[in-house]
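Chapter review: from sequence to fold.
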Amino acid sequence: MLRFMPVGDSMTIGSAGEHTWRYRMWQHLRETYGGPFALVGPRETLHDKATDAPTSYEYADPDFPRAHLAGWGEGWVHMAPLIGEAVRTHRADVLLVSLGLIDLGFYTNAEQTAENVRAFVEEARSARARVRMAVLPVIPNVRATADEPFAAQVTLFNELLAKTLADLDEPRSPLLLVSPPPSYDIHHDTYDGTHPNASGEHKIAAAFADAMHQAWDIGDPYAEQRRPGP
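The token string follows.
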């Protein structure tokens, strides 16, 4: 069985009543992956905006497997110390990682965030030497349209992320830089300038799915009937 662990921030954990890109990925893998698989991780809840806490089990589809390692307001700086134990305990084979926006917005600059990427990779590999990681660069949010220094940090971090993954890549534990969704538009694919709506969820899932198909022959390309238009 191939075990996928989604790792991310608020865009990955999602809020009460949402589907999330994790759900779209699960649907895609159910239809295209030719073997048993599971979504794994130490957490199961969604973020509840009413209580501002990760306490909701109000998933849009009750059949969706809930496991993940994601948190509202969490980034590389938070996940690096947690990933080793999570990978070890849940025997994750593939990490689907979407992190960085919150780090750059509140905690660390681009260079410090890249160092936390390195620590994350090292911790994951210390727990499972052959773990694979597919990593999505930071998708600029509405803040980047008005805050030029922040936008510059996002651009710099994405450059450093690509270099870090290239430096650390190795055959037994490959690191895959996922191409950002080319048509992603914060005015059409989010509900607030940051968090994905249904079309954004599909586009993020498609980015991961297409990258894994091309690099590792996992599943098929994201289905055209699922893929939203521009």
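Two observations follow directly from the output. The beta strands are 2-8, 37-39, 46-48, 53-56, 69-70, 94-98, 132-136, 175-177. The chain has a mean pLDDT of 94.
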